[in-house]
């Protein structure tokens, strides 16, 4: 399924340079509010304490506030709280988690995602992994070491983030299934192939991708991994970021 990432960040959105560190983990959050309140807070000049890379609405919309190349202010902890951390990756690395994580906020209060929201979140996890592959040539495995919740970083202040009803088992299963299907040709009806061709054809006409990707659609040999890869390339180049469009395997 094709999804659009809507850029919402502005000059007030908090972020910092990663200092050369490659993101290696995804952290899931719950917004404890609406999508509109999330948009407002992450764009507010009065907010000098937090931000996130992405937000996923109950209706499946995806908003982006911070570029993946930069660190958002979502997962930081003070030195005195490090002994309370439960996430093995945070314990192992021993530095500010913001430096190596990508954060996803989910609209809601208890983690009970709508079906549209769940599917969008699964797609976004996959998009982030492919983006990291394309940009840095590194893999981001879909396991409970690399895909975690905020409560595992800050169990004192955020013990229920992303919520007691967050679908962890279903998420890991969906992400694992997608890993298994990465090398299979996309299974789609004629109308879906036409939609994919329209999307990639427009990107080709705008100079964002090479013709080979359109040809794969015409030949119906495009795989899910390749499609995720080329969508990540299109989004990156739309932001003026030069990435490799030739190697979907990273």
Automatic annotation (TrEMBL):
Its EC number is 3.5.1.28. It comes from the Bacteria. GO terms for molecular function: N-acetylmuramoyl-L-alanine amidase activity. Transmembrane segments: none annotated. SUPFAM superfamilies: N-acetylmuramoyl-L-alanine amidase-like. Residues 10-163 form the N-acetylmuramoyl-L-alanine amidase domain. It catalyses: Hydrolyzes the link between N-acetylmuramoyl residues and L-amino acid residues in certain cell-wall glycopeptides. Keywords: Cell wall biogenesis/degradation, Hydrolase. This is N-acetylmuramoyl-L-alanine amidase. It comes from Paenibacillus oleatilyticus. The lineage of its organism: Bacteria, Bacillati, Bacillota, Bacilli, Bacillales.
């Amino acid at each position: 399924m094709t999804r659009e990432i809507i850029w919402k960040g502005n000059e007030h959105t908090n972020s910092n340079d990663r200092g050369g560190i490659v993101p290696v983990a995804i952290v899931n959050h719950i917004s404890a509010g609406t999508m509109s309140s999330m948009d407002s807070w992450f764009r507010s000049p009065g907010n000098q304490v937090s931000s996130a890379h992405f937000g996923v609405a109950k209706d499946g919309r995806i908003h982006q506030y911070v570029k993946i190349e930069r660190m958002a202010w979502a997962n930081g902890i003070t030195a005195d709280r490090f002994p309370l951390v439960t996430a093995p990756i945070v314990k192992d690395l021993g530095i500010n988690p913001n430096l190596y994580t990508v954060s996803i906020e989910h609209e809601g209060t208890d983690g009970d995602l709508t079906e549209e929201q769940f599917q969008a979140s699964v797609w976004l996890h996959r998009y982030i992994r492919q983006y990291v592959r394309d940009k840095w040539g590194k893999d981001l495995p879909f396991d409970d070491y690399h895909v975690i919740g905020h409560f595992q970083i800050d169990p004192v202040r955020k013990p229920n983030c992303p919520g007691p009803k967050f679908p962890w088992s279903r998420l890991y299963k969906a992400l694992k299934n997608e890993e298994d299907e990465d090398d299979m040709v996309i299974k789609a009806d004629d109308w879906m192939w036409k939609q994919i061709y329209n999307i990639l054809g427009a990107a080709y006409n705008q100079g964002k991708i090479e013709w080979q990707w359109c040809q794969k659609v015409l030949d119906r040999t495009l795989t899910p991994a390749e499609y995720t890869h080329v969508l990540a390339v299109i989004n990156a180049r739309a932001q003026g970021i030069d990435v490799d469009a030739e190697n979907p395997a990273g």
